[in-house]
């Protein structure tokens, strides 16, 4: 196995458990199983199933940590085989991303001197999302006797298990099952009554597992076996797992589980592993990025590609990707703008089917967005800053600040730009795929209803004859209750203009759908004309004497404190605030104006981009994993290549190096998408111009010998390879493409080589 496909942990420290549980999470878009180590008392087990949300005693609806089917205990005679009570002689965990398998090897010495080597291979199937499994190999190194195995499904699990003030139990245990060959446990969510059933079964060669004993212990179900072992001999035990929920089916999920388990066991664990590996091979053929000459960058980008892909559902258009994906309970499993702005582009250009599913999630939660607007006194659709299963706002009202003090969270009340972000995602998807059916039958409804929302959210200032958007939060969340945030205003204006443009397009394209949609949404053609009038007068704060755009009204009047020091990870260290509150300074959390210029790049000249990049880069604290990737791309755009590489490496290593300090809470999913964008849009220089021609303007870091990747442009798979001497492109169909501003014609299955 090639180490450029492997993430390794060779030194066990329980304080690192949370980080590695996230890094070693295995997921398939339906289910995520944190890389919890069965043989340790520490850590946060996580069994997260997409779309299973509940509130119960929690402040807001949150993703449910379901019953834990990974729990297994082993004993050498009467001595527990676990890391805390034994001497650890050997420890190795390896995530093989090519295969999607987590390998673990530990060698433990008990107090009496018995040495046992245990190896395991864990997978969460990409072939059948309801299946997962583990193969254990057990070797008594220096003794003969008995090893006892206790196989458990734990229904006592809670969310926020290490946070006593917020610990919540979302599940009632409904039924425990003795399958005779295996066990199962069914739970039901307290609020919505969703049933979740987990089944597990141990299998070994005939005669290995003896004297089975079934037990029901409160909210746990277990089966115990003994194995009579001989010194130096290896014993293989296979663990089969199957998961179903009532959300998946109208039938009894337990009956489906039994049928699937029978079929799974009949075909065997190795056959499912083989099919699982095949699916990953097919996936890597679409998504892999090859970076020659920089092993750390190669390993880092593959980790990000692996985890973002594992987080997305191929089939379910009722779920999206949460900010922490299926890797942890952070941000309560909620979906943010992260999905459309950071993750969606990766899928648009590698797997458009998944991209469409992610946008359909927004379509399927439109009623919730409309409810948000009504409750806030607006019309149309106001998408929530934090979303769960129904599109209503689920942002917590309270949290804690950097010092642990209670603080009111205003983002759910004021961070309105999410609605435009979603429309931007729809337009990017359509532009790259020309999926007219989606735009006509689904996307247009969102475009028009969000335009309707913005027409009610703007405020007319009669004195200046302009429309303003006051009391908002932009992408920079250090500054709350601000007026006329440029990112918000500009994208609202863009949203309204796109609504007008696409309404005219739809009227010509399909008059029947157009008429029905306007009738359904209670929009008139006069309303659409008014949208254009509003867009023309939306206020965009500008300084007449400078190209630097004021982030919001009054920003330049704040205390200007620049960042002068950075930590060992290259991240900014808090400067002396000189007695000012954070919101009273020009320090910002993440790109705001710079972010706008990346999304709507055609609307700003290079000098304007450069001056704004230089101004805001010095004042950005990067207190969000969303931040470095965008500065990397903009750095390349304006010629700051040195910092662009540094920011890229911070992005790809976000979780591997835990440079945000909170990897234990789950994956930084936005940075996985940002990593791909940094490579393809940044170093690869891929962009779409006003004429909707795909363009390349690549630049390679000094240590990179070659960069290769694929993009799906309107169904044409383009293989792109870049060196310092040339750019080669081969497509599966004909295409026009621009490289370094010169246009070329691509013929089907013929490679062209362009000298630099």
Your description of this structure?
With 756 residues, the protein is of the alpha+beta class. It is 32% helix and 25% strand. A hairpin with a 5-residue loop joins strand 20 (398-400) and strand 21.
Features:
9-stranded antiparallel beta sheet, 5-stranded antiparallel beta sheet, alpha+beta, single chain
- Approximately how much helix is present in the residues? 25-40%
Structure class: alpha+beta
Distance between the termini: 35 Å
Based on CA atoms alone, the radius of gyration comes out at 27 Å
SSE layout and pairing:
Layout: E1 6-9, H1 17-23, E2 26-27, E3 31-33, E4 47-54, E5 62-65, E6 72-76, E7 79-80, E8 87-96, E9 101-109, E10 115-124, E11 131-140, E12 145-154, E13 171-178, E14 183-189, E15 195-204, E16 210-217, E17 220-229, E18 235-245, H2 253-267, H3 269-287, E19 290-292, H4 295-310, H5 338-350, H6 352-364, H7 366-375, E20 398-400, E21 406-408, H8 411-414, H9 418-433, H10 436-457, E22 459-461, E23 466-468, H11 486-509, H12 511-521, H13 525-536, H14 593-599, H15 606-617, H16 627-638, H17 641-652, H18 669-683, E24 686-688, E25 694-696, E26 706-713, E27 716-723, E28 726-731, E29 735-739, E30 742-746, E31 751-755
Parallel strand pairs: 25-29
Antiparallel strand pairs: 1-8, 2-3, 3-4, 4-5, 6-7, 6-12, 8-9, 9-10, 10-11, 11-18, 12-17, 13-14, 14-15, 15-18, 16-17, 19-26, 20-21, 22-23, 24-25, 26-27, 27-28, 28-31, 29-30
